[in-house]
Amino acid sequence: MRILVVDDFSTMRRIIRNLLRELGFQNIQEADDGNTAWPMLQAGNFDFLVTDWNMPGMPGIDLLKAVRADERLKTMPVLLVTAEAKREQIVEAAQAGVNGYIIKPFTAETLREKLDRIFARIEAAPAEAAS
Amino acid sequence: MSAAASREQRLATAKALVEHLEAGREQEAGALARELADAEGLAEDLGRMTRELHEALNALRVDPRISELASNDIPDAREKLSWVLTLTEQAAHTVISAVEEGLPVSTRVAEDDSASDAVRAAGQRMHEIFSDILMAQSFQDLSGQAIRRVIEVSGELERRLASLVQRAGGKPPAVPAAGPGAQRVQGQDEVDALLSGLGF
Hints:
Mean pLDDT of chain A: 91
Strand content of chain B: under 5%
Radius of gyration of chain A: 13 Å
Number of domains of chain A: 1
Radius of gyration of chain B: 31 Å
Mean pLDDT of chain B: 83
Shape of chain A: globular
Order of helices and strands of chain A: EHEHEHEHEHH
Number of strands of chain B: 0
CATH superfamily of chain A: Response regulator
Number of helices of chain B: 7
Low-confidence stretches of chain A: none
Number of domains of chain B: 2
Oligomer: heterodimer
Strand content of chain A: 15-25%
Structural class of chain B: mainly alpha
Shape of chain B: elongated
Low-confidence stretches of chain B: 170-181
Number of helices of chain A: 6
Largest sheet of chain B: none
């Protein structure tokens, strides 16, 4: 499982990377905003995207929309981890096709729970995920 | 008198008032302001506001403190905030590096079959503590975002203040009104409830 973690704060990237490592994920790459992440997503065989919302350059919501609009990437699960806690933003992310939404500050347990849930759903719908 | 005619008349008076003010004819402006406001019973208020505005614009012209704020103090404050951002980031990285070293050590102790139950339990507890310390470093991201926002706003303030000082003789620049406050959720539970309501 190749995971891309996108956040403009290097401390938060390291925190998420460490949490993912604790959960058994070893293959993790980092990007500091959507503009940096996009070519990496295009070039690399990533299976999962964890992204912040509020970043200079390209924000996470735009990255999510770009992923959903891309023929090859559109089924990739995307988890938003963000301090953005406005209802309309959560609704916008849901409408854009996000798979999970975690607000900062969060706990390791919350991250584990959301990941389990996302993977359980992917396994429940293998045809859609594989297409 | 019809309402429309009355409105037109008041508008004409107001325009004349602005012309007098722009031309610096204080007496004529005052008279017109009183005439305009008398109908509404607001002569006192408007007169006072006109005077205050006039004094404020004069103060801007003569108060060196205002331009000092724009050219020195605000840039200095911004620099200090950037420094706080750098310091907290470095500190958070130092802590995370220590945690990255400590986590596998605690795991080894927790899973060491040759160790006693008490030692393994202590290893497990150490692992939990390291995880808590790791999560606590997210303060740097959250406080950093707030500090960046303040840096942005103070930059905007600085630019507007500079422009105001420059244009003190003319009209003060308009300050954009704040947008309506968006409704914030109160925690992860509410996010989950909201998303589950949307079919997640």
